[in-house]
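Summary of Year 1 activities. Much of the first year was spent building the evaluation harness for sequence design. The harness presents a backbone, in tokenized form, and records the residue chosen at every position. We chose the following record to illustrate the format because it has been used consistently in internal testing since the harness was completed.
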């Protein structure tokens, strides 16, 4: 975890770091205000931060070599990378999306992070209107990117990242501000997109359109469907 003041530097170093990442390593960058976590000093709580989450499989020595470059980025606010049971790692982000809050999500698949893309992230992330809002950038590529694009119902294997922009609020009066922030942020990152989005992050309107029977492949990326739709708590 690093302070937002170092966001451009950290994101540029992170971009170079994952360019040579082994298949055993997966990362996620989260831009948000620091939660009141027990491993953080109180002075950090509520401050904007860059969080790099890591999952690395393999032997302990290999894992340590894989994450070592992250530890050379400079003095972090916190470093809690350690051997962890997979089931605990899998639930790591659960506390950030509790039941009962309002959520409005936008998403994009991104190309490799250019300097312009990093500047956009650094500008818009810290305009979040509530402490619960965040932007999450999921690392892709590797074995996922080497699969045949026509071999499964998945878009988009050429992407370097999948990004979600999550407007989150506890006070209903904050909903309009969070939605406006998410939409504005999304419009700003679209020039850096591959032009596809992850279907599970789409909202009811998009899923309804994709639920109409289609040919095996279409320009929208929708797969054939029975015509049924499922309601979710995130929206396009």
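For this record, the design step produced the sequence shown next.
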């Amino acid at each position: 975890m690093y302070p937002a003041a170092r966001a451009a530097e950290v994101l540029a170093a992170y971009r170079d770091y994952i360019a040579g990442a082994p298949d055993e390593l997966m990362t996620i960058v989260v831009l948000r205000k620091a939660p009141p976590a027990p491993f953080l000093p109180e002075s950090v709580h509520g401050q904007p931060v860059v969080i790099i989450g890591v999952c690395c499989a393999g032997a302990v020595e290999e894992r340590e070599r894989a994450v070592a470059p992250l530890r050379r980025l400079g003095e972090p606010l916190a470093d809690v990378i350690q051997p962890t049971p997979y089931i605990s790692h899998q639930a790591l982000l659960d506390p950030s999306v509790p039941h009962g809050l309002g959520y409005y999500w936008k998403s994009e698949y991104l190309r490799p992070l250019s300097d312009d893309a990093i500047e956009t992230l650094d500008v818009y992330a810290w305009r979040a209107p509530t402490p619960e809002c965040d932007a999450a950038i999921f690392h892709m590529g590797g074995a996922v990117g080497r699969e045949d694009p026509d071999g499964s119902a998945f878009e988009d294997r050429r992407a370097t990242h999948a990004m979600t922009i999550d407007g989150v609020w506890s006070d209903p009066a904050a909903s309009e501000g969070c939605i406006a922030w998410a939409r504005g942020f999304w419009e700003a990152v679209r020039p850096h997109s591959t032009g596809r989005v992850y279907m599970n992050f789409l909202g009811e309107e998009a899923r309804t359109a994709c639920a109409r029977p289609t040919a095996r492949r279409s320009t929208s990326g929708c797969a054939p469907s029975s015509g049924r739709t499922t309601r979710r708590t995130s929206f396009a």
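The chain has two domains: 2-78+103-201, 202-236. Quantitative recovery figures across the full test set are reported in Table 2.
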